[in-house]
Write a structure and sequence with these properties.
heterodimer, A: about 325 residues, ABC transporter involved in vitamin B12 uptake, BtuC, two-stranded antiparallel ribbon, 13 helices, B: about 240 residues, alpha/beta, Rossmann fold, 6-stranded mixed sheet, 8 helices
Chain lengths: ~325, ~240
């Protein structure tokens, strides 16, 4: 009864770290002569994964609450495009607010339908994903919208503070605040309770509908921020932004140790999962594989990783 | 002494169907009253009215002599009524102490961070007092046995109940030894001077635990008997409507 062995769930939480180490060692051995281990390349991996990590933090809340968001990738593009367009006439601070507001508005629509009309979030966000992606194409006319505001590019893209790149600071900030909110506040506890047993949460006085709404708004806000980070780094907004993040981010979060059906989640795990996915892309590119091969290998590795981390303990 | 809970001529109908008609009962502090009846007799409906899930169609509920109108379950909780649900209403993947404080987590500091130390300390004190044998306050619910889970659910109700604990089939899913443990816990509640209203299918248990027995048949209150002055045959006759 009083065994001190770690539980299966705790062991599964460690898989992401083992996977991360394994992939790191593999690429280090294979690519030692191709600059994989150079400080510049390793920094690059972190910079490139910054938007995905921000999205992953939002998704941990959504999955932990027993919901899913499929629309965040499309919301990234729309938020970036809105921000870039508003910025041209209204200045960059207004553009930033417009971008974040766009992400949150998407989340609010998703959340209101899921929480109050009680439609499954899978279907709701699948549908809104289509609407948003279409809107992003329509608004941008399939064109890239350049971003030229220097302060914006410094803050959300290539700048740095005390020698630390701003994208790294954003990553650390979002992960730390997200982790504290998730682990150490009543809100985080209520998110987990709603995802674990909604009826128990309800009879315990937790406002279940409000929690469901809030996690989707949070995910939308993260999509807005990720859109700004893309626009800052690439100095342009385009409807394809965030397109490939859907699969990568969901995989990163699940491999990180967050339950797909609610009640369990970890933000440090999602961070490592996200870095692992970024490292994978980076290593495959350095190995000189074509994009089509990269897609196939990445898909397979995600399949294996997800299969290993999702296997329920026999009970 | 004013009864903790008074039910006066309670009636509940759903559309045209009457689930409970003209039910009246007083519950006193330190008293265990058992509610028995066949499936569909209306026991759960009655519990749900007391806990504020349903509003009665007619009749009054008085708490400490004051009329109570519970808008929803959280109001009943604020008035000191706790329910141990048949499905326990525990969050399986969370720890024992998080479940004990579910929806009422204490916080500290300017950022409102969870006060885990306090939750763990209070949980440990409580499980010790009620003699609920769990590995630790940080154990995950899904790793506990059925009896241990039931113990946690009862401990939670005990921790928050100021007046009344409603127990819906507290031992239905348990083995003999675990049932005995839960019954001991219920007796500990009685010693705390709470009023206890328990639904049970096991007449043996009802006779072991209760001071009075209230029988419900097809929504009708058949009668209330003092446990010491009745026997199983009489209660069975009242439940089934067949003379013994």
């Amino acid at each position: 009864m009083t065994s001190s062995l770690p539980t299966r769930a705790a062991l599964q939480g460690l898989i992401v770290y083992a996977g991360f180490a394994l992939i790191f060692l593999f690429f280090s051995a294979m690519l030692w002569d191709r600059g994989f281990l150079s400080a510049q390349n390793l920094t690059n991996i972190i910079l490139q994964t910054a938007p995905a990590t921000v999205l992953a933090v939002g998704l941990v809340f959504v999955l932990a609450a027993g919901e899913i968001d499929l629309s965040f990738g499309a919301a990234v593009a729309l938020a970036a495009i809105v921000a870039a367009m508003v910025m041209r006439t209204q200045g960059w601070p207004v553009g930033v607010l417009a971008g974040l507001a766009t992400g949150m508005a998407v989340g609010l629509v998703n959340g209101a339908i899921v929480a109050y009309a009680r439609l499954p979030s899978f279907l709701v966000t699948l549908a809104t994903m289509g609407v948003i992606a279409g809107a992003a194409r329509e608004m941008s006319g399939l064109q890239s919208i350049p971003v030229t505001a220097e302060p914006f590019i410094a803050i959300f893209g290539g700048g740095s503070l005390l020698g630390i790149p701003s994208l790294v600071l954003w990553t650390i900030g979002v992960v730390v605040v997200g982790h504290l909110a998730f682990r150490e506040t009543r809100y985080g506890a209520h998110v987990l309770a709603v995802g674990d047993n909604p009826r128990a949460a309800l009879v315990s006085g937790i406002r279940v509908a409000r929690v469901r709404l809030s996690v989707l708004v949070l995910s939308g806000a993260c999509a807005g921020l990720a859109g700004l980070l893309y626009a800052g780094r690439l100095q342009a907004a385009r409807y394809t932004l965030g397109e490939s993040d859907l699969m990568t981010v969901i995989a990163a979060v699940i491999v990180g140790g967050t339950a797909l059906n609610g009640g369990r989640g970890t933000i440090p795990g999602a961070l490592v999962g996200s870095l692992m996915m970024g490292m994978l892309s980076n290593g495959l590119i350095l190995m000189g594989l074509s994009v089509s091969w990269q897609m196939m290998i990445k898909g397979l590795i995600i399949l294996i990783a997800v299969a290993v981390s999702l296997r329920e303990p026999n009970r | 002494m004013t009864p903790v809970l008074q039910l006066r001529n309670i009636r509940k109908s759903f559309g045209g169907v009457t689930a409970i008609q003209d039910f009246s009962l007083d519950l006193h502090a330190g008293e265990v009253v058992a509610l028995v009846g066949d499936n569909g007799a209306g026991k759960s409906t009655l519990i749900k009215m007391i806990s504020g899930v349903y509003a009665p169609t007619a009749g009054d509920i008085l708490l400490d002599g004051q009329p109570a109108s519970f808008a929803d379950a959280s109001v009943a909780r604020e008035r000191g009524i706790e329910v141990v649900y048949q499905d326990l209403a525990l969050a399986d993947q969370q720890s024992v102490y998080m479940n004990l404080f579910l929806g009422r987590e204490p916080v500290k500091g300017p950022f409102g961070l969870l006060d885990r130390k306090r939750m763990i300390a209070e949980t440990e004190a409580l499980v010790k007092e009620l003699d609920v044998r769990i590995p630790s306050a940080s154990a995950t619910i899904r790793d506990l046995s059925g009896g241990q889970r039931q113990g946690v659910a009862i401990a939670r109700a005990t921790h928050w109940a100021k007046k009344l604990v409603l127990l819906d089939e507290p031992t239905a899913a348990l083995g003999v030894a675990e049932t005995a443990r839960v019954e001991a816990t219920i007796k500990a509640l009685k010693a705390r001077n709470l009023a206890i209203f328990i639904i049970s299918h096991s007449l043996d248990q009802v006779f072991r635990l209760s001071d009075r027995i209230c029988v419900l048949r097809r929504g009708q209150q058949i009668g209330v008997r003092e446990t010491a002055k009745t026997d199983k045959n009489e209660i069975i006759a009242m439940i089934t409507g067949v003379a013994a």
